[in-house]
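Researcher: Quick test of sequence recovery. Tokens follow.
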């Protein structure tokens, strides 16, 4: 696989677009994800037919579920392959589009969800603030946004340095480590007679980092939760860092 400068720059643009990404993560717990979306939409008390933007929607599984709850949902993602696949599920109240989360949307939404650690991937730290501002500017006046991020302190404390995951006959060799305030995941595997290597890299953003950025973006942080049941956030014990803002 050619390791062009462009691929190095935006690793997520290439890795998320491969079929192997979806094979590796196909056993994710979607029941838990659905409970989370039930809890979140109830907590926000969204009006019927509310317009929701699912930002970094991947293949649209969560968009489809939110749409089944009666909302008008737009799933947006940078990956053309993912959007192409998601688009087969589109209907009058479920739309999909290729969109860079750093850009403000033309439409305004009642709610914007950025779920399951789909933030902090950019090479340039300034892009995090740009993204927050874009989310802020894409909300209507009474709208709410939710960023569901990992709780960095918990993740680092419980990091599994090395493991092998076997899915669909492929052995994924995974290494995890922390370097330069980023959490890295190196993934090596052989498929179709070829060796593949990908690196996932997420910025180790903590609550105080988000608070600082939100202050700069003129965002009002309303609530913080530590798990998908929307229970209190504890710095060292909570698995997630879920932030609700407007």
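Model:
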């Amino acid at each position: 696989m050619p390791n062009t400068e462009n691929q190095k720059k935006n690793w997520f643009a290439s890795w998320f677009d491969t079929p192997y990404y979806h094979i590796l993560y196909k056993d994710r717990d979607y029941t838990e994800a659905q409970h989370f979306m039930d809890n979140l939409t109830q907590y926000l008390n969204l009006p019927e037919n509310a317009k929701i933007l699912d930002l970094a929607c991947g293949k649209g599984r969560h968009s489809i579920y939110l749409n089944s709850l009666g909302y008008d949902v737009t799933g947006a993602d940078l990956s053309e392959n993912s959007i192409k696949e998601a688009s087969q599920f589109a209907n009058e109240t479920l739309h999909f589009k290729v969109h860079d989360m750093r850009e403000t949307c033309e439409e305004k939404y009642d709610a914007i969800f950025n779920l399951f650690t789909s933030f902090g991937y950019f090479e340039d730290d300034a892009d995090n603030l740009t993204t927050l501002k874009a989310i802020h500017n894409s909300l209507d006046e009474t709208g709410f946004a939710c960023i569901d991020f990992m709780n960095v302190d918990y993740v680092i404390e419980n990091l599994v340095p090395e493991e092998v995951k076997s899915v669909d006959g492929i052995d994924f060799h995974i290494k995890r480590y922390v370097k330069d305030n980023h959490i890295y995941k190196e993934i090596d595997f052989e498929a179709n007679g070829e060796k593949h290597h990908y690196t996932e890299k997420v910025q180790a953003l903590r609550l105080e980092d988000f608070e600082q950025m939100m202050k700069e973006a003129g965002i009002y942080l309303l609530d913080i939760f530590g798990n998908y049941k929307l229970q209190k956030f504890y710095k060292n014990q909570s698995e997630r860092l879920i932030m609700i803002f407007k």
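The first helix runs from residue 5 to 9.
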